[in-house]
Aluminum activated malate transporter family protein, putative (Theobroma cacao), 986 residues
Amino acid sequence: MAKEAAGRLEWRTNVPDETSKKLEPDYGLVGKTWLRLKCVMGGLVMKVWGFLEKVWTLGVAEPRKVIHCARVGLALSIVSLFYYIRPLYDDFGGNVMWAVMTVVVVFEYTVGATLSKCINRATGTILAGALGVGIHWVADRSGDKLKPIVLGVSVFFFASAATFSRFIPSVKARFDYGAMIFILTFSLVSVSAYRMVELFELAQDRLSTVAIGASLCILVTMLFCPIWAGCELHRLIHQNMEKLVDSLDGCVAHYFKDSGNLTISEEDLNKKIQGYKCVLNSKATEESMCNFARWEPTHGRFNFGHPWKQYLKIGASLRRCAYCIETLNSCVGSDIEAPPCIRKHLSDKCLKVSSYSTNVLKELAITIMKMKKSSKIEFRVAEMNFGVQELRDALKSLPSHLLAPPSSTGEESTEATSVPIKKADVLPPIMKVLPLITVVSLLEEIAARIGGVADAVEELASLAEFKPAKDRKPKQNLPTNKIISDNLNRQTI
Amino acid sequence: MAKEAAGRLEWRTNVPDETSKKLEPDYGLVGKTWLRLKCVMGGLVMKVWGFLEKVWTLGVAEPRKVIHCARVGLALSIVSLFYYIRPLYDDFGGNVMWAVMTVVVVFEYTVGATLSKCINRATGTILAGALGVGIHWVADRSGDKLKPIVLGVSVFFFASAATFSRFIPSVKARFDYGAMIFILTFSLVSVSAYRMVELFELAQDRLSTVAIGASLCILVTMLFCPIWAGCELHRLIHQNMEKLVDSLDGCVAHYFKDSGNLTISEEDLNKKIQGYKCVLNSKATEESMCNFARWEPTHGRFNFGHPWKQYLKIGASLRRCAYCIETLNSCVGSDIEAPPCIRKHLSDKCLKVSSYSTNVLKELAITIMKMKKSSKIEFRVAEMNFGVQELRDALKSLPSHLLAPPSSTGEESTEATSVPIKKADVLPPIMKVLPLITVVSLLEEIAARIGGVADAVEELASLAEFKPAKDRKPKQNLPTNKIISDNLNRQTI
């Protein structure tokens, strides 16, 4: 909003209209320049204000990001104490710089990422340092003339090899930073050893300052409002499930909005439907979170060996649902309307399938959130399959409707099938019901894919040894429960 | 394969089977341990061999990655000359370290990424340096007791603010590295200034070495086999189009494989079909390439102001196609088979729509590759729409087939519509044709989305001022051309 205002203001300043020119008194060149400058400054201020407002919104929406920023500031302030306190500075001197640098480079948003960087840095440094010293020893014994050549060739070879290792997917995922540090340390050690005598002392000082920086980072990140990558991944999967629930609900409600009684405004509905888009693009985030989570120690409800990789499988199955919902969403927007009688005939069943499917997803989301095995999930999945079966049954009775002249209702047409039909009456409906049939088919597919999500969550529950949940109060969040179980009792499937 | 072999070998070593035990002579404890060690070593060697083989495959598949590694090695070797050559070392001393560090940190795979990092580093360093010196000046004037407090508070405040800026999407996309360097430099300058006197000299030396490192990186990355992010993005979009062509072709061919004459093996077909999966997950790569490409100077056929952002739009529209193809792919795998007569009735039309759609995509891929406006694209799109219309017409004549008893053929059923039909005959087919109708509907949707891709490419052509292409030889790559244009002439649409 502020941006718009700024835009408008800018427009006003750049394109002064005719009327204002006539009305304004003549200020002279200086006055005009001053006026223009004032306007430009005003525009600038508005822009900055708009930016700040955006930043404020971001901060309010995700307070943990603000906390992270404060933590970075805190860690840096603590590490600067090494400069301010005389005895500490006397011990380390200029090498304190390395502690500051380590804090800046290593401190990441989540504990896992920070730990991963610290471990990578340590491993890379030690490996490269040892190798560098070794190469230096070899170079020393090969004569003064050969020395720079041996050093240069080894730098070329090892740097190239380490760079190549960064392209290997398994290395890139977990040890990318370590490989970079390896190149850096190896080059520095093997090359600077050429000129320096007190290599070991230097290395020792530098290593100790880096260790100070790294351990400070780990302490601050784990003690002050820790943000665990594992929790983030857990939350992301849970949120994605809820987004899919909203999208699926919204899509189907939007399509059958005439027949159902829609209580939500068009705008809210559209916003709800768009949820699946986040799920479509969450792969990269999930993968990096999973990689970081694997470094994290036991925290909260998660043990060290928690099956984080299974979350990726759940994420993939959720994305498969999202692809289908994306397709469903464009079918929903299709212009061709099915004849009302057919629509009515199928809408109830479709809404049921969608509500059963979302119930399964909601139950799975609860399972994930509470980390307890759900006692109801099997029932929910059976219910969903039953809904799909009902929808199929409803479809089976469709041909009679298809053949009905467009004006007649569903009830009449059942009798009408046995009388001779002219071809002209037969032709149009198939095209009209095409989108509806597609919606039905996609709903079936979505139900099948939600079954896949349920399987993935079940696998997680057994891998992570979730305990069975205590029974929740009945009918909470599940208004259609009774009707369905009645249905299930009546029609045994 | 080697991995499998290694696995097998390991299995053999760990689980010695009964028969071999009986036949083997008794070696005694030392002999056994030696044998086991030999086997373990063998397994290890096989594993390492397998890994090396994988690395070799990666290198052969993407030789440019190997070239990049050589470039990194080269740049580092050149920068080490500062240590080996006496006069150069005397000038810079230990500060040469900063040049080495800059090369390691700044050298990236593409020119754009390297430039982006260099510019970010320079901007971040200068801004933070100036601010740090300013803060130092203020701190100096606030008394000895207040000095560390002023410095500490300013480090806390600016580091937090810069960290927060990294969360703002627009900053993160282009200036993430700059913000990190800002924090680093600011902390180092403002804090170390507390203890150092010759701040300016130190800063000057450091800046000049960093500048040497950065310019070396830029020179090497631009002169030795440069890899341009823009070209990569261009190639990625082109490849994605071709992958979608393969997937769509493969999917439809797989579904109608009985009716068409399939010349390709099942395995190859499956591999072809999976192409869309790469497109589904290419968003992150496209976005980063686009961000880097915007830093690159004019190169090859791309000017500085090339509309890279439009490639993101094309990428998004390609992904929308991929979502649909993903859904189509699972419909294709459905168990329920449509009655042969209906299948036959629609398969030709479906194959036509798919072939017309892929023709559009192929033409668009050529447009992208050659960067010339296609003279045929409008015709191709019209052809695709015509194919969709034909498919719809074919669908319109379906109800008669639907009503036919399963044993009768399509030709007989046309006459059968006007005679009375029993309900029992009517019921089954609708469920049987459901997947087929869904395939038809998805094909229509895919065609519509390919239309979207065509629009996006057209927009790119006008934004980047593509020149019209010279006429290519007719019938090249386009075998169905003549038949279609005949069709078009017969049925004016």
Notes: Chain B touches chain A through 90 residues (CB under 8 Å). Confidence is low (pLDDT under 50) at residues 1-23, 403-428, 474-493 of chain B. Strands of chain B lie at 372-373, 467-468. The radius of gyration of chain B is 33 Å.
